[in-house]
Structures are given as structure tokens and as C-alpha cells.
Amino acid sequence: MNNPRQFAEAVGNTPLIRLRLASELTGCEIYGKAEFMNPGGSVKDRAAKYLIQDALERRLIEPGGTVVEGTAGNTGIGLTLVGNSQGLKTIIVMPETQSEEKQSALRGMGADLRTVPAVPYKNPDNYVHQARRLAESLDNPHGVYYANQWDNTANRDGHYQSTAPEIWAQLDGKLDGFICAVGTGGTLAGVSAWLKEQDRPVVTAAADPDGAGIYHWIKHGEIKSSGSSITEGIGQNRVTGNLEGAPIDEAFNIPDTELLPVLWDLIGKEGLYLGASSGINVAGAIRLARQLGPGHTIVTILCDSASRYEKKLFNPSFLTEKGLPLPPWL
Fold first, then answer.
1. How many other C-beta atoms can be found within 10 angstroms of the C-beta atom of residue 164?
2. Reduced to 3 states, what is the DSSP secondary structure of residue 289?
3. Which of 57, 143, 192, 292 counts the highest number of beta carbons within 10 A?
């Protein structure tokens, strides 16, 4: 075999996919960075790779050590797989409201998964705080590493070092806009920071679901939110360490009623079997394209597969109960 690679070395260098319907609708060229094609199946593989790589380089942990993280799921999957490849144990603390598919995947990968009630971040029993306290309570001679994807800027740095330069190279620098949703803020902050250093002006923006406060923070300088969303892993109501100082120009609030028709088109007409966060990203790219006008080139993130959310996304009773549009084929 030529040039065999470990798991972490296979993360990144994902293709750009032209989104035909969004492009035709706006008169722009809209592309999705196919992060669902990472070996662990999501954009969070990048954060996991750089969080663990940073910890190993700084000798915070070594093979036989334990990684602890609070996560909605995808970062936990990435950390578990990168950890497995490096001889690390992984403990994941997750809100019990997250999809059964992600919980099952984590257990199948060998993670020590601990689900807890979903409560706001300000509550001391929030899953993030529980993960931090758990890490502080553990003793392992090979190290215990609280990954802290929210405030550990190795997350942001990973996107600065990899995601942004990849996009730039794939488009030969002919890029006018970048937009994605905010969970930890690592993707948007890292990509934005790198793009702002280039010799072409690029508008960077957040696509924010109902129930999240980043839209209002970017537009008005304070965290404020209302409503709720069926999306998982995105939607933030605090300024994380990864978001601090990020050069973000614009924000759009995208309700579920707007993102789902876009998602159904991506699946049913473009063959892209994606989760709801990708729907909000593409809906945001359409909004940004309309604001910039025809003839511009915009990139967003295709985060993960719909296979991690099937029991919700394709459940007519669940969607109808929330007053949301069903996939046309259901």
C-alpha cells in the first residue's frame, strides 16, 4: 500500500460540491464543503483531530490516558475515533435529548457515554459543567484531558490551519462569502480569521437557528434569543472562547420552517443526505447570496449525514406536532 494513513491523517481535504438549486435560485455560485465525508462522518472530526493533537504535543496526555468531553454528539464521535487510534480512553457526557443514532454510535465505538438531563448552560448541572467536574475528579497516570471544545482555541486553530486554506485553494482564491452555523464557534471563527488575512474581501456570516443568541450578538452586541429549533449541535447562547474576537461581518436568523424545505431539496433533488445543520447552512448561504447579489461565490459547510437524525427528521408525527413541513416523499 502506498502512503498508508492513520485516522487523524485522513481528516480534511474534503471536496467542494456545487449546490445546483441554491446557485440557480440566486444567480451565484454556492458550494458546500463536504465535511460529512470525513472518516468520522462530520465537520467535528477536524476539531477532534486538532484538540487531541494539541494535547499530545503539549504532553497533557499520552497513550493510556483519558479524554473527557461534554458534547452534543459529533465531537464525541470524532474524539472517540481519534482517541482509539492514539490509544486513549474517551468519556463523553451528552444531553439525553440528543439523537438515539449518535448515542448508539458512541457506545459502538467504545466510548464511555454518560447521558444527563438537558438544562441551560447557566445551570451547574449542564452537561458541559458536568464533563469539566468529571475530568477534574479523575486520576490517570497517563493524563486526563478535558477537551473543552467550546473554549479551547485549538478547535478554532484547526479550522484556521486546514478548512480555510483548503477552500481558498479549491476556488483559486475566487471567494466572496463564507457562512455557517455556530455551535462552539470554532469553524466560523477559524475560517473567518484566515479569510480576513487574504488579499480579497470576503464577507463572513453566521446562520443562527431559533433559540440561539449569536444572531442578536453579531447584529446588536448582546446575547438574546427566542423560540426553539430541532437542530442539534448548533445554537449557542454565550460567547465561547473560540468566538472571542472573531471577525464576523453578518448574521441571519434561520427558522426551522425555512431550513427544512432547503434540506428536503438537498436530499430529494441533489442526492445529498444531510442533517438539519447543513440545511440551515445552505439556507443561510441563499440569504447571503441574495444580499450580495448575483455573480458572487459563496461557500458553506455540509456538516454531517441525515443518518444520525433519522428518527426525528423522517418522523411525520414529530414534524407535524411541531408544525413543520414534511419531506415530500413522506
1. 24
2. helix
3. 192
44 in active site: yes
Q: Tens digits of per-residue pLDDT, 259-299?
A: 999 999 999 999 999 999 999 999 999 999 999 999 999 99
| Phi/psi at 69 (5° precision) | -150, 145
Q: Of the residues 33, 44, 49, 102, which is catalytic?
A: 44
> Which residues does 323 contact at the CB level (< 8 Å), separation at least 6?
257
pTM attached to this predicted model: 0.96
Average pLDDT of the chain to the nearest whole number: 96
Q: Which amino acid is at 100?
A: E
Given the DSSP bridges, would you call strands 112-116 and 16-18 parallel, antiparallel or unpaired? unpaired
Grid cell in block for residue 163: 478548512
- Contact 327/267 with Cβ under 8 angstroms? yes
Cα separation of 259 and 325, whole Å?
10
Amino acid at 22: A
